Amino acid sequence: MSSSQIRHILDLSPKERQRFVDSFDCVICDCDGVLWTVFDPIPGVGEALKTLQTHGKTLRYITNNSVFTYDHYAAQFRTLGITLTPSDIIHPALAIVRHLKSIHFEGLIFCLATQPFKNVLINAGFELTEGPDQPLEESFKKIIATVHDRAPVRAVVIDVDFNINYPKLLRAELYLKNDPKCLLIAGATDKVLHARKGFNLIGPGHFLDVLEQSTGRKATVLGKPGKELANLVGDIFGIEDRGRVLFVGDMLEQDMVFASRCGFQKMLVLSGGASKDDMLQERDVERVPDYYADRLEDLTKLFE
Amino acid sequence: MSSSQIRHILDLSPKERQRFVDSFDCVICDCDGVLWTVFDPIPGVGEALKTLQTHGKTLRYITNNSVFTYDHYAAQFRTLGITLTPSDIIHPALAIVRHLKSIHFEGLIFCLATQPFKNVLINAGFELTEGPDQPLEESFKKIIATVHDRAPVRAVVIDVDFNINYPKLLRAELYLKNDPKCLLIAGATDKVLHARKGFNLIGPGHFLDVLEQSTGRKATVLGKPGKELANLVGDIFGIEDRGRVLFVGDMLEQDMVFASRCGFQKMLVLSGGASKDDMLQERDVERVPDYYADRLEDLTKLFE
Q1: Complete domains list, chain B, with CATH
Q2: Residues of B classed as catalytic
Q3: Measured between CB atoms, does A176 come within 8 Å of chain B?
Q4: Alpha helix (H) ranges present in chain A?
Q5: Mind listing the pLDDT tens digit for each residue in B189-234?
Q6: Which residues on adjacent β-strands are paired with residue A247?
Q7: Which residues of B touch A130 (CB under 8 A)?
Q8: Rg, Å, chain B Cα set
Q9: What is the pLDDT averaged over residues A122-131?
C-alpha cells in the first residue's frame, strides 16, 4: 500500500465501515500517544475502549514504557473506566523476563533501566548489577579502573534509563567485549520520545546505537518494533489469527513496523508522535499504516 | 595515493630519506598514541623530538585531549626532556576560545566537558552553565521540568565529558531547538578512545552524534579533524607553507583526515589507535597517510 492509498476510517463508506469492524476480533493499542500523552489526556479514549468491548472486541495493550509499574497502569486505566488485568498488557521488562525464562538464562544482568523496570526483573528472580550513578573523578585511568570491574555479567539489558551516563555505557561495552557470550538485550529502542505536540526529545534508542557501534553487536529487541517481541506476542496474548488483530499506534517506526512484522492490520492515530505529513511522506511499506484516524475516539463512530 | 603505495620511512633509500627530511621544516605531532598512551610510555620519543630540534625542525603539537591542563602537558614534556611553551600546543578548548573570540561571541555557554576544559573558557572570560550532574528522579515530567530551564544559552559546547548523561543531553537539545541561533560547537569528536593496545573504548563523538541527529544541526568542530580547526591552524602556528609541514598522528580519522584538510604531509605511527591492517584496508584517500612508521623513534634513524 502506498501512502496515498491510506484511508481515514471516517472516509470509509457505510459498507466499508461494516467490513472493517467485522475484520478484527482483537484490538491491541499502544499506550503513550494513543490513550494519553505525557502531559495531556486524549479526549474520548475511555468511551472508545468501552465501545470496542461492548461490540465484543478483545482489548490488549503493548507499550514500550516500562517506566511505570503495573499498579500505575491499572490506575491509569481506571481513570478511563477500564479494568486492567496483568495479562492484558505487555511492556519491554515483562517481555524480557519471558524471553530470559524461555532461554533458561542464568547469571548476572547489568541493567541500564529505571527502577520499576529493574523491579520486574528482580521479582522474576534475576540478579542485577547496575551503576555507577554518581559522577566519577575526571581521570580516564581512574574511570577505567572503576568501570572495568570484571563482574561475571552474562547479559546487558538496556531500556529507558533517565540517568544513563558515560561510565555506565563504558561498563556495558566492557562486559560485552570481554565475554562474547554475554547477551545484549534491548527494551525500548525509540529514537524519539514524544512529550507533547511539537515537543520531541532524544529517545533511549540512541544509547543502544552507541553500544552496538562500539561493540559490533546487534541487540535482541524485546520492545516494539523488535522482531523477537513480534515472535513472542502471539503466544503471550494467545492470538490464533494475526490477520484478525487491529493494532493501533501513534509511531511509524515502533508501532507500524511492529504491526507489520506481526502480520496485524495497522491503524495510525495522529494524537501522538507522528503527524499526517510524516505518514504521507513515508515510503517504507513496513512503516505505512493500512488506516488512520485523528484519534482513537474516531473508532466509536464506526459502531453508531 | 592508494594504501599499497604508503612507504614505511625505514624502507626509503638513502636518497629518498634525504629528500624526505629536507621536505619539511616543521613537525606537528599528535600527543596521545604518538608521544605516550594512557597507560604506557612509548620508547624513544624524547630522543626523536630532540633529534628533530637538533636538525632545525620546528616542533608543534595538536591534541584532541583538553582533559589535561597546560601545566600537566608541560610536566609531561619535561619527562621527555622537552621544554614546552604555551604557543607550541593546541587543544580543542584553546581552539574554541580562539574561534569564539574571532566571531566576537557574547553570552552564556552550556558546556559538556571536563573541568580543565571549562577552566580554559572561564579564564578567557566566558560565562558557563552546566549540569545536572547528579541523578534525577525517574519521572519524565520532572526531568523535563528540570532540564527545560530556558536559560539564555547562546552556545552549546561539547567535548570529552566523562560524566555526560541523558539529562545534560536533553538540556543541550532544548537550548538548540529553542533558539535557532544558539551555536553548536564541538571539540574532540573521536568515536573511539584508544587506551592501550587492543583496548578501545566509546569515544565522545558518539554523544555529538546524538545531539546532531536529534536537533538536525551540524556542529562547528574545533578539534581534529574539524574543518574549522584546519582553517585556524595556519594562523595559530604562523605556518607559511603548509606543504613543508609533516603531521604525525596515530589515528586515521582524527589525524590523517585533519592533515589532509590542512594540506600537510602526513605520517601515521602504529604506536596508538590504528593498526597496520586498519591503514592497509583504508580506501578513503583523506584517511590514508603518505608515510608510516612503527613509532616516532623511527624518525631518528633518518638523521643518522
Answers
A1: 7-64+225-302 (3.40.50.1000), 93-221 (3.40.50.1000)
A2: 30, 32
A3: no
A4: 14-22, 45-54, 70-79, 92-102, 115-123, 140-147, 166-178, 205-215, 227-237, 258-262, 276-281
A5: 999 998 887 788 999 999 999 999 999 999 999 999 999 999 999 9
A6: A28, A266
A7: none
A8: 20
A9: 97
